[in-house]
Amino acid sequence: MTAARRETPRERYRTQLRAEIKEHAWEQIATAGAPGLSLNAIAKQMGMSGPALYRYFSSRDELITELIRDAYRDLADTVRAAAAGGADLAGLGRALRTWALADPQRYFLIYGTPIPGYHAPDDVTQTASLIMECLLDAARSSGRDVADDDPVRAHLAAHRQWAGDHPADAATLHRALLFWSRLHGILSLELAGHFTGMGLDPAELFASELRALTR
Question: Which residues mediate DNA binding here (predicted)?
């Protein structure tokens, strides 16, 4: 067996510096939002010149892509770990909410308003599909069903590209899509502060929606 190659000091320095750049990027996103992300501003914070920082990320879009990749990988790991631990559909929903509440800016980067002029590469979509695979598996094993005569079921049977190669039937597709869209609706409103001042507990509302979707 060939021994794994060790990183050179230069490679370790590059890895560390890229991680530090991403930390500053997250701080900037928390303050000004993703559309306001500026590599020159990050370079100034780090005491670097703009051209020097561009040796580590060639453009703002490359940096955004790395942040999105990190977020999707982390969420995919979270959901897959929950599924491997025996979580059912409701358990996956709770894992999603815990992950979102831990870092709302990370959540909004991948599920919030699209960044003007930015287009994610294909591999980002592939990572996101790992999350949906877990949901489809859980939805398929769930005993809960929706109305057999709902016309959207026939539509989903013919428009299933979003499910990739998963062998889910139309009922499972419908169940997973309802689960995904309704929970994200509540999460997005909660994280954006739209429940503030309404006198309700978002956690109770989320739990109620989980019960309704999995009853």
Answer: 38-57
